[in-house]
Specification:
The chain has 346 residues and is an alpha/beta fold. The chain contains 9 helices and 16 strands. The chain has 2 domains: 8-175 and 311-343, Medium-chain alcohol dehydrogenases, catalytic domain (Quinone Oxidoreductase, Chain A, domain 1); 181-287, NAD(P)-binding Rossmann-like Domain (Rossmann fold), CATH 3.40.50.720. The longest helix is centred in the middle third of the chain and has 13 residues, at 177-189. It is globular, with a radius of gyration of 20 Å. Bound molecules: zinc ion and copper (II) ion. Residues 47, 49, 69-70, 176-177 line the site of copper (II) ion (CU). Copper (II) ion is lined by residues 47, 49, 69-70, 176-177.
């Protein structure tokens, strides 16, 4: 490609500081170095993690940055030592890695790769360092991705190669939220056939958890949310019973216990509110990207979607251009959308 080995100038939405609108700027994206891949991002969704970083950040650490970690695109060029990717490959960049060599990658029980940015680079936001600059200043890649840019550079250990026919403006959702909720049910919780499940919180992660419970063969799936407008969507993903905690004058755990002869078999907390969690001699687990070993599993999820085994389109409520990103953030912030897909490059 004509751009290989050269700096690419392109558009990106930069978060210069916390609590401020993103600004569309021209940035420079350096060529990929050893083991790295430069990707043209076609589409990206936004996820609550972005909102958390943008609005809840305590200080300016982690800024300026390009947010975005639910994207999909096409390989533009590869750096030295990259053999598994070539220009033109469709890919999903990931904020979780699978180096394949560490103790954790070699253990079938975990996906917590030792080289995940989250283990060591929480404050630095980028692994191993950013390839973005704007007006001479380095700009971080949020969670090592930064998909609100037309081009990004990623380490190959955090990139999944997907099917050539995959629609990028949909499968980008499999890069975080949908895989997280789905995997929380099928991997982390290990929902079993015939079981009774409850899913708390019906955003994208919760709806994907409902879908995971259904695909794992649960016989009854309680969908719990204080916003009853979400129940219709939960039904589409397989929920059988719907509960609004605000409609009862006792704790929802008691209501569920009465309705299920003592309690559910699996309870999935997808609100992100620790007060929802109930502890009393139960087994508790957390999940990172649904427990999926990313490079192995994300391509399979894409194929499951293409084969009609899992739903993705149903999460998409809005589509916008990169220029409208601040409107998309507002929709997300005010709970008016499940997932908004942004067209990143034309
Ligand atoms: Zn590893
Ligand atoms: Cu996310």
């Amino acid at each position: 490609m004509a751009t290989a080995g050269k700096v690419i100038k392109c558009r990106a939405a930069i978060a210069w500081e916390p609590n401020a609108p993103l600004v569309i700027e021209e940035i420079e994206v350096a060529p990929p170095q050893e083991g790295e891949i430069r990707i043209k991002i076609v589409a990206s969704s936004l996820c609550h993690t972005e909102l958390y970083h943008l609005f809840e950040a305590k200080d300016k650490q982690g800024f300026p940055t390009v947010l975005g970690h639910e994207g999909a695109g096409v390989v533009e060029s590869v750096g030295p030592g990259v053999t598994d990717f070539k220009p033109g490959d469709k890919v999903i960049p990931l904020s979780v890695s699978q180096c394949g060599e560490c103790r954790f990658c070699k253990c079938p029980k975990t996906n917590q790769c030792d080289r995940n940015w989250i283990n060591k680079y929480v404050d630095f936001m980028s692994y191993p360092t950013t390839r973005f600059t704007c007006r001479g200043q380095p700009i971080l890649q949020f969670t090592s991705t930064g998909t609100f840019s037309e081009y990004i550079v990623m380490n190959q250990i955090s990139v999944a190669k997907i099917h050539d026919d995959a629609p990028l403006d949909r499968v980008c959702l499999l890069g975080c939220g949908v895989a997280t909720g789905y995997g929380a049910a099928v991997n982390t919780a290990g929902v079993t056939p015939g079981s009774v499940c409850a899913v708390f919180g019906l955003g994208a992660v919760g709806l994907a958890a409902v879908m995971g419970c259904k695909n794992a063969g649960a016989s009854r799936i309680f969908a719990v949310d204080i916003n009853e407008q979400k129940f219709e969507k939960a039904k589409v993903f397989g929920a059988t019973d719907f509960l609004n905690p605000k409609a009862y004058n006792k704790p929802i755990s008691e209501v569920l216990a009465e309705m299920t002869n003592g309690g559910v078999d699996f309870s999935l907390e997808c609100v992100g509110n620790p007060e929802v969690m109930l502890i009393s001699g139960k087994t508790w687990k957390g999940t990172l990207l649904g427990g999926f070993k990313v490079k192995d599993s994300i391509p399979k999820l894409v194929q499951d979607y293409m084969a009609g085994k899992i739903k993705v389109d149903e999460f998409i409520t809005h589509k916008m251009d990169l220029e409208e990103i601040n409107d998309a953030i507002n929709l997300m912030k005010t709970g008016q959308c499940i997932r908004c897909i942004l067209n990143i490059s034309k």
